[in-house]
Design a protein that fits this description.
heterodimer; A: alpha/beta; Rossmann fold; six-stranded mixed sheet; B: mainly alpha; Methane Monooxygenase Hydroxylase, Chain G, domain 1; 7 helices; about 80% helix
Amino acid sequence: MKATGLSSAPSRLRDVASPASVPADQLKMRATNLSVRYGEKVAIKDVNIDVHANQVLALIGPSGCGKSTFLRALNRMNDTIPGIHTEGQVELEGEMIYAPEVDPVLVRRRVGMVFQRSNPFPKSIFENVAYGLRISGVSERRLLAERIERALRHAGLWDEVKDRLNESGLSLSGGQQQRLCIARALAVEPEVLLMDEPASALDPIATAKIEDLVSDLRNEVTIVIVTHNMQQAARVSQRTGFFYMGRLVEVGETTQIFTRPKERETEDYITGRFG
Amino acid sequence: MPQAHTSRDFESELRELRAHSLAMGARCERGLQLALKAFWEGSAELASEVEELDRHIDRDEMDIDALILRILALRQPVAYDLRFLAAALRLVTDLERIGDEAVNIAERAKEEHGTAKDKVRGELKTMGEQSQEMLRDALDAFVQGEANRAEQVMVRDDSVDELYGRIIRAMTDFMTQHPAQVAEAIRVIHVAKYLERVADHATNIAEEVIFMVRGEDVRHFRTHPPPNVGRVV
């Protein structure tokens, strides 16, 4: 079940079927002339980019280039930062997520997020995954158990934790904790999952599991991933966007970006001829 | 050509690869030149010099392959660097084959050609010159990263093919008229074939240069034209 609509205002999304039924190449999100500034400092400027449904879009670029700011703009996570100012538009299946009547909490339910550092709650594994569901009003124990098992299976964690669901989430390894956070995000069945360097603190084995997971998940959810690891971007994504100094320099098919980028700045960055 | 790499070690490995490829190419040019000289002069001494060069060229192939594999494993190159390495990997194979063709030509120096060689002396000499020029220009295009020059090399392959056809026809007539010299004529045809192959390898190198520079695979452009993807850095 997916949340329908972002507010009580009329929405043309109300009658749209679940994303699993739409063609894989359909547009999921679109940013138009999106600019974000922190006070006077411009973080991103006039970004225009499409997020294709059931694809992985990787965002790469040097530190401070604005890719994380852009990612957070896709589910209004920046709203929580004082002094931030956002201009332009972001559409989620045609609906303007920055429209005044839109509830950002509903946006975040449909556009989930996983962070660089895993941040499980100091609760049991079960309760970690149940958290978002309970807030959404799911309280029936059997239904909760079903949804939690499904989320943990999708996150590739079920077999490792099915016999210890009552143990603390903090008892898991770093890689498992990150997959637990992914399961928590998946439990409310978002349409889009934003991942901000989800494997940067993990060892190669745990990283490989996260990458496999990203590949598997895109059948069910659209993914936008920020990564500093360009090989990771090349491995997991179908499209890649390169940010530099707040600008989206280039976006295209990942194979094209990594074999024959069109822009000199992209070439210099990905081949390590930068600065 | 891109600017220097941020990683000095990576940059120095790329320079080493470029320099070693260039040296291997120069040895191939020298081998081909000596082989043709040996063939025309019937010099066994020059022929053995070509064989010695070929041993060096074979060593080059193995060393350069190893260097490329090391760079691929350690640096995980992308974009121009990746295309350069892919092109270099194919380049060394073509160069090694050119070395072999030079040896083949040199081996014919020790054999009898009767009057067959004289019958197509002009065509065969021109073929030798054109093949050498194609190889030289293809290697220059590789070193300088010049796709336009590489395109010119590809165009010239037709001329070598045409000369090859003329030599085949002339030798076919010659064999009819001189049945006692069939073996000699076949040897001459072989030399023409070796030169035609050298020109083909030079064409391959030119195609590799175009891929390296533009990211376009033009190897079978008549049947599989590369898509127009706009400007490539």
